[in-house]
Amino acid sequence: MRIGSHAEPRESTSGPFPNIGTFRVFCHFSHQNYDDPLVFPGVVNATHLHSFFGNKNTKASSTASSIRGGGNSTCQGGTADRSAYWIPSVYDATAKKLVRPTFAAVYYQSGFGNWVDPAAIQPIPTGLMILAGRASATPGNAISQQVGYWGCFNNGAPTNTGNVIPTCPSGHSVTMIVNFPQCWNGSNLDSANHASHMAYPSWQGCPASHPVVIPRIMLQVIFPQESHGTGGWSLTSDNYPITERGGASIHADFVNGWDTGIMDRWLENCIRAVKDCERSELGGGQALTFSFGGASAPPITLTSGPAGDTRSGQSGDHHRPHRLQHLLRHDRTHLQLVRQLRNPELEVEADHQRVFRCDREAGALVHAW
Question: What is the structure's pLDDT at 159?
Fold first, then answer.
């Protein structure tokens, strides 16, 4: 664990979250793969490309037990928070590359609107898994902005620009925010759709079916914006016409990996006490620490994808093909760049890294690069 000296938690009377108990940790980008241990446990290369934060060992075979019990972490505090956080990756078709996240900020909070009593908030159950958002969402069938949204960020509170990737002013970063549900049914650590064991509160508090209040988790991922802008950006889970702005399929996954003793400290001293612990203060003159210059994440590279998998005939949000998803497939002699489509008809010229596809609906040959 990485714990250092720090001032005591501050009163939460000002700042971006006034009168809200807040504990924040920063996390480096860790790695990416085509796995989803929550939706497709044990199945390698089963889904669209994901970007992971936190536990560095998260992969298809990961379980709640393995995440909590092993692996280093890219988050402040190191092994104090072995939780796994992941989102669909962002692809920039203009620059022909994946967009590497600058960092992720994870806020654990008492919640907005005084809808729940901070003193009643319980620790996050060991082994709890949550999926928030919807991978099948489109601009015309978007998720609630209570759940997730995009914005622009410039060293202050991010703006809320809506459900698709925005064009932000020069010098600003792009941010994706996902809010996880705060009300637990008290019995199931997971559910068939990975969401129904949880619920969002209303002005009346948590519903009777989900009476246990836990900290609200807000995942904020920051992406750098280059001079050519974000017009070619999309999420690897987007599955709708490229004529519409990308990013509507906002979703994120969380598997709890907190050290229970550390979690009890920030829960008591920050969340229940309604204090501002945005510097990862634990109370008692201590805080979780790490250096952004210390353990840099490896560069983003495309890993081996499911060779020949067209996703056709499969169901569920995470089985949907991505309009801009690119997979690296290992052939005995080389890696071929393969475009993943619903009905792929591909001609691959690996030496020139060019991919063409036949778009039957448009009846035209489209240059993908």
Answer: 79
